[in-house]
Amino acid sequence: MLANWPIDQSLTTLAIFDRNARLAASHTLPSQKSINRRKAAALPGQYPEARPIDPKIPVLLHVNSSGSWTLLAPWKCILPIWYSVVYYPLSTGGNVRFGGLEETRQLAHESSQPWFPGDFPGTKAGDQWEESEQEKRKRDWAKRPRGKRIAWDSVPLGNGRKGEIGKGWACDWSVLGDALHRTDRAAAERVFSCQNAGNVEQSATTGALVNVKITLLSRGVPQPCARVYRLPSTDPELLQKWLALAEQPKNGKKSAQKIFRPPPRNATQQMRAAYLAHTLLEPPAQPGDGGYPVVPDEVDLVGFVTTGNYNLSEGRGTGIGSLLLSKVVEGNGDMRERKLCIVRDAGQGFGRLASWELV
C-alpha cells in the first residue's frame, strides 16, 4: 500500500522554484494603474474578471505549525499582493508581515544588531558575501562613464595626500592585516577591562574583529564600505580639532541665545582669546569646508562600515561596522575619547565625527 501511495506518483517540481516561470510572471505583470482600472470597473464587493492574457503567477502557500500561513511569490509580484492584503485584518488579530533578505537585513539594522553574514567579516560566509558584493559594486562602478565615476587614485585626503585606502568599492580588510578572525562582545569587554588595568594580552587582540554600532554625531548617513578611523594618534593639533567638534552643542534647534564652543584643552590665554574672536566672527566649519579638520593617516584606520543606512527608529544615520580590536584599545585617552571615531565614506575627502559601542 505504501509503495503505491498516489503522492509518490504525482510529485512534480513546483513552478515557484523554476527561474523561467518566475521571470515570465514578472515580465508580463500588468501595471498597478491598469489593475486599479479593472478594480474600479468591477461591481462593489466583487473581484475583476480574469482574462486570458493575465500572467500565471507561481506561488507557494505553506501553513506553519503556529497556525499562520507563509506565501512565497516572485519578487515583483510582492508589491501588488501588499496593496491587496496590507489592510486586510487577520483572524488572529495581527498584521500581515512581509519579509525577504533585504527586509531581514533592514530589521536587524533598525534594532542595531549585526546581520549574518554581511556584518561578520572574518568568517567563511562573511568573506564570501563580501566578495560577491565587491563584484557587484565594481561592475556598477565600471558601467559609469569615465567622467562620472569616482577616480580612486585622485581622492583628496588633505595635507597633500591623495588616493583611496585599499579598493574603493570594497571593505578592503587586507590593509588591516592578514588572518583576521571574529571575537564576541564578551571577549572584547574583557579586553577593555584588562586594558584599563594595564595587563592586556597581545594574543587576545591580534587580528580580532569586533562588531560595533556607529552613530554619527552630526548630519549624514554612513554608507557601506565607509572607512572608520580612530582619533589622530600622531598629530596632537589635529586631535584637538576633532575633540573640539565633539564638544559642540548637539541640539538641532536654533536658540535665540548664541552658544559658544569651548576652546581646545590645554590652550593658553592668547589661544583662548583668539578662539573666542574666531567663534564670534566665523560659524563652525562644516564638512568639506577649508577649516574643517582633515582625516587621520592610514595608521589610524581601524575598520569599515559593513551596513549603513538611515535608522528610522532613531531618526539619524547609523551603521554596523567591524573594528580591529588591537587598534581600538591603543591610546592613552579616556574611554570616552577612545569611543569616538571618524567615518569617511569611500570616495569622499572628509570625515564625520561619530561614536561607537559594542553590539
List keywords for this structure.
six-stranded antiparallel β-barrel, 2 domains, alpha+beta, single chain, 31% helix, two-stranded antiparallel sheet
State the helical fraction. Answer: 25-40%
Overall strand count: 11
Average pLDDT confidence is 84
Give unreliable regions as ranges.
251-259
Q: What overall form do the CA principal axes indicate?
A: elongated
**Major pleated sheet:** 6 strands, antiparallel, barrel
Q: Tell me the count of domains.
A: 2
Strand content: 15-25%
- Helix/strand structural class: alpha+beta
Number of helices: 12
Rg to the nearest angstrom? 27 Å
Compressed to H and E, one letter per element, the order equals HHHEEHHHEEEHHEEHHEEHHEE
Strand sequence of the main sheet, in spatial order?
6-9-8-7-10-11
> What is the CA-CA span between the terminal residues?
56 Å
Describe the structure.
This protein is of the alpha+beta class and 359 residues long. It folds into 2 domains: 14-98, no CATH class; 124-248 and 260-358, no CATH class. It has helices at 6-9, 19-27, 32-41, 78-85, 101-110, 124-143, 185-197, 202-205, 236-246, 269-281, 325-328, 335-338, and strands at residues 60-63, 69-72, 156-158, 161-162, 181-182, 208-216, 227-230, 301-311, 316-324, 340-344, 352-358. Strands 6-9-8-7-10-11 form a 6-stranded antiparallel β-barrel. A two-stranded antiparallel ribbon has the order 1-2. A two-stranded antiparallel ribbon has the order 3-4. A hairpin with a 4-residue loop joins strand 8 (301-311) and strand 9. The termini are far apart. 20% of the residues are buried. The model is unreliable at 251-259 (pLDDT under 50).
